[in-house]
Input
Amino acid sequence: MDSDKICRKFTEFFERKGHVIVPSDSLLPTDRSVLLTTAGMQQFKPYFSDADKAQQVLCCTRAASIQKCFRTSDLDEVGDDTHLTFFEMLGNFSFGDYFKEGAIKFAWEFLTEEMKVSNEKMHFSVFEGDKEVPFDKESVEAWKKIGITEDKIKKFGRGDNFWGPTGEEGPCGPTAEIYVNDVEVWNLVFNEYYMDRKMKLTKLKQQGVDTGMGLERLAMVMQGKKSIFETDLFEPIMKKIKELEKEKKVEERAMRVIADHAKGSVFLINDGIRPSNVEQGYILRRIMRRVIRYAKLLELRSDYFDELVKVVVKIYKKRYPELEKNEKEIIAVVDEEKAKFEKSLSNGLRQFEKLSKDNEISGADAFLLYQSYGFPLEITKDLAQEKCVKIDEKAFEAEVKKHQKASRAGVEKKFGGAGGFGERVARQHTATHLLHSALRQVLGDHVQQAGSDLTPERLRFDFTHPKKLTDEEKQRVEAIVNDRIKEAIPVTVEKMKYKDAVKAGALAFFKEKYPEEVSVYSVGHFSKEICAGPHVKNTSEIGGFKIKKEEASAAGVRRIKAVVG
Ligand code: GLY
Output
């Protein structure tokens, strides 16, 4: 059975069982406390404590989805038979509706009747109980009711059979898991608890279900394959890599990493993420650069990245039609990153050879490769493994922290000095915040700050957006900023914990990691950003705002130059 058919059967089955089918959320999650969407339940998080809200918004207390997910937690395992960074998760959800018995019955019926998986191939697991959360005997009873014998039901602890929360707090609970041919295929989470930031559990006032089944793993079972890389979701990519190999080195692990990371890159770019040195952008950069390094190792034909993008689009375009629309843009982004990294890659590899002479890469060595040659840690780790050299990862992390601290102090000095450069650019700086919010209002929430540079003469602002702005869009943006200036809105600043700031909806951008406590600058309800300042005290001080130029800065990134006064 091909994967498109599996998806169709899944949604049809759950629709028949009274679920509303909700489209996949973006990989850039609604819930800003996490970097990427890692599970199907994320877009439904509020409903687990508020079934009425689910009823209001979804008109239903049952939902099902096929969610695009990206997990960095499995990065090191990519290359084996069952782990990926990007994958799709089939899930059904109950918000104060059915609970353990219902979820187990649905899962059983779907697998045995729709997918025709034989009972003999399956085994199950439930939560064994600990000091806080009791043994899940209801799930055992539910399995027994459908005829599963107790010897097929294993019991495990928190590490295996307890799930959540995503981010720092949220719904979570014990799980019942289904294994087919010893591979975990479906995770049924019973959301009975809420875990707060101190990891304290309280019982939720309603019971919920959140299930997740990896499409690639199910496809592996349904297509009788030994690895996810042999399924129809990967086979065309693996075939293409082999075609692109001049010397036929056929390093299976390297090919698998390329296939997984190239696909992940396509989907992250498609959802508006661009390679950078921070947050989501750095996750994308890490996987793209790993593709580029492995492609060099395998000596792939030079247009390999474009070709890989095209196969990925071909596999998925039926279910994600926007991929085809964005194909050119995605290719432009990968080409640009490839050109950028290829410049430093050969020198970096030579530097690695030198540094690894005494059989160990120290934290400072790994940091040099990262800082001066743009090597993400994964690449240095791959190289160390290939050359059987030791690498001190902990010392590398410590080195990164040390440098972040130093550069933050530098930036604060640059922008903070009373009476100096800092004060003279305050007007440009506040205007930048207004511009950022105005762009999001006119163009959409995909707009993210990608860089900015201020001089007393002008401001420059880079942001993610796929197209040239029309004259009308420029005029609207300019008018919105000028309206806010005329309204003479006071600019306020508040110190708060980074996580709280993000929760409160503050926009964040910075080349470095934020400290735990940050300053949040607000212009009424119009703009709220984490920022080191300085800013004017009232928008009227800006005087006026005029866009001088709008141009491309990099693939998928536009640049506005403007003046104030
Ligand atoms: N939310 C369930 C899972 O990710 O397995």
About this structure: Residues 322-355 form the longest helix (34 residues).
